[in-house]
Amino acid sequence: MLDSLFDDVKRMNKRQFIYQVLSFGMIVSSALMIWKGLMVVTGSESPIVVVLSGSMEPAFHRGDLLFLTNYPEEPVRVGEIVVFKVEGRDIPIVHRVLKLHEKNNGTVKFLTKGDNNSVDDRGLYAQGQLWLTKKDVVGRARGFLPYVGMVTIYMNEYPKFKFAVLACLAIYVLVHRE
Amino acid sequence: MTESTEVVKINKWDGAAAKNAIDDAIREVFTGDLKCKESFALIDGRLFLCALAVGVALYALLWDYLYPFPQSRLVLIICVSSYFILMGILTLYTTFKEKGIFVVAKEKVGNNNRVWEASSYVKKHDDKYSLVVVMREAGGAGGAGRCREASVNKSFATYIDVNGAVVQSVVLAEITKLYNSLSSEKKEK
C-alpha cells in the first residue's frame, strides 16, 4: 500500500520531482500571499481572528470568525468592538470600548470590557496598565461569520489531529502527480 | 524496452495516472529508441517561474518577520502584487506556451536540425488519449523552416494491458509510425 503510494514519486525524473516540490510550495505561498495581501488591504496585522471565549456574548460566540480593519485615520469610538493585544499574553482579546479619552493632538487612551463580563478589563491588562492606546490595537471588528472558527479551535485543542491533517494534505500533494 | 516499464503499474481508469504513464513511455521512445536529445528549455522555464514565485513569497515572509507589519507594508505590497502577476504569467505560460507539451526532442539529420514536440490531452472522465506530435525543421541551407503535425486519438486501452502496465512495444510502434510519416512527408514535397 505504502509502496504504491510512492510509486508516482519513484517514476518521476529530476525535473518532475522539483516541479512537484515547487507546486507544493506554491500552494503554501498562495495562502501566505493572500494573508499578507489582506494585511496590506485592511491595515491589520491579523485581519481574521477567531473568538475563543464567551466574554462577548450575545454579540459573538466562541468559534465566530471576525474580520478586522485597522485604518489609522479612523478614530476609535466608545461602543466599538476592538481586538487588542496585552503584553505577556499571546492571544489577542476581543472586547468593547467602554471609556475613551482623546487629546487634541489625537492620542487616545481607552478602557475595554467584555459584554458578558461583570467587570472591566483592567484586571486583564499588564501589571500597572490602566488604559489601552492605539499601538495595542490589532483591529476593529467589521464583520463576522458564525461557527466557522470552531474548526480552528478544535485544531488548536488537538494539535496531533492538526498535524495529522496537515501531514496528510502535504503527502497527498507531494506524492500525487498533477 | 526499458527497466522502468516493469515497475509501472497503473489504474487505467485514473485518467491523470494513465496519461502520465503513457507520456513517460513516449518520452522514453523519443529519447531512447529514436535517439533524440531531450531539450529541457520549456520545462525549465516553468520551473524558473515557479521558483521565482516561491522565492518572492519566502522573501515577503522573511521581511515581515524581520520588520513586523506596519513597517514592512511597502515590501509586502510589492511582493504580493508581483506574486499574483507571476501566477498570471505562469498560467499564460502553461496554457499558451507549453500547451501540454511533455517532451521536446532534438535530432540532427544531415545538416538539418529537427525538433519534435509531443503533447497529449485527456478529457475528464474520458478514456481517449489524444497525442499530437509536431515536427519543426530548421530549413538547412537558407530554406524556410518547416512544421508538420500529426495526431492520434486512441483509448488508454490501446497502450495499457489488463495488468495496468504500459505496453512499450505498442507505444514504440505508434510513435515510429508517426515519426516515419512526418519525416517522409517532408521528402515527398
TrEMBL record, chain A:
Which GO cellular component does the record give, naming just one? signal peptidase complex
Q: Which residues cross the membrane?
A: 17-35
Xref: InterPro entries: LexA/Signal_pep-like_sf, Pept_S26A_signal_pept_1_CS, Pept_S26A_signal_pept_1_Ser-AS, Peptidase_S24_S26A/B/C, Peptidase_S26, Peptidase_S26B
**Is Lyase given among the entry's keywords?**
no
Gene3D superfamilies hit by this protein: Umud Fragment, subunit A (2.10.109.10)
Q: Which Pfam families match?
A: Peptidase_S24
* Catalytic activity, reaction form: Cleavage of hydrophobic, N-terminal signal or leader sequences from secreted and periplasmic proteins
Example of a GO biological process term: signal peptide processing
Topology in the lipid bilayer is annotated as: Single-pass type II membrane protein
Keyword vocabulary terms for this entry: Endoplasmic reticulum, Hydrolase, Membrane, Protease, Signal-anchor, Transmembrane, Transmembrane helix
Where is the protein found, in the record's own terms?
Answer: Endoplasmic reticulum membrane
UniProt enzyme class? hydrolase
Query: Which Enzyme Commission numbers does its entry carry?
Result: 3.4.21.89
Gene Ontology terms, MF aspect: serine-type endopeptidase activity; signal peptidase activity
Q: Which family does it belong to?
A: Belongs to the peptidase S26B family.
Cited function: Catalytic component of the signal peptidase complex (SPC) which catalyzes the cleavage of N-terminal signal sequences from nascent proteins as they are translocated into the lumen of the endoplasmic reticulum. Specifically cleaves N-terminal signal peptides that contain a hydrophobic alpha-helix (h-region) shorter than 18-20 amino acids.
Know the name of this protein?
Answer: Signal peptidase complex catalytic subunit SEC11
Task: Give the species this sequence originates from.
Answer: Plutella xylostella (Diamondback moth)
Q: What is the lineage of its organism?
A: Eukaryota, Metazoa, Ecdysozoa, Arthropoda, Hexapoda
Automatic annotation (TrEMBL), chain B:
Top-rank taxon: Eukaryota
The UniProt keyword set, sorted, is:
Endoplasmic reticulum, Membrane, Transmembrane, Transmembrane helix
Give the primary localization class: endoplasmic reticulum
- Where exactly are the transmembrane stretches of this chain? 47-68, 74-96
InterPro entries referenced in this protein's UniProt entry, alphabetically? Spc2/SPCS2
Compartments where located: Endoplasmic reticulum membrane
- What is the recorded membrane topology of this protein? Multi-pass membrane protein
The answer to whether keyword Transmembrane applies is: yes
Q: Which family is this protein grouped under?
A: Belongs to the SPCS2 family.
Q: What is the protein's known function?
A: Component of the signal peptidase complex (SPC) which catalyzes the cleavage of N-terminal signal sequences from nascent proteins as they are translocated into the lumen of the endoplasmic reticulum. Enhances the enzymatic activity of SPC and facilitates the interactions between different components of the translocation site.
Xref: PANTHER family: MICROSOMAL SIGNAL PEPTIDASE 25 KDA SUBUNIT (PTHR13085), SIGNAL PEPTIDASE COMPLEX SUBUNIT 2 (PTHR13085:SF0)
Q: What is this protein called?
A: Signal peptidase complex subunit 2
Originating species = Chilo suppressalis (Asiatic rice borer moth)
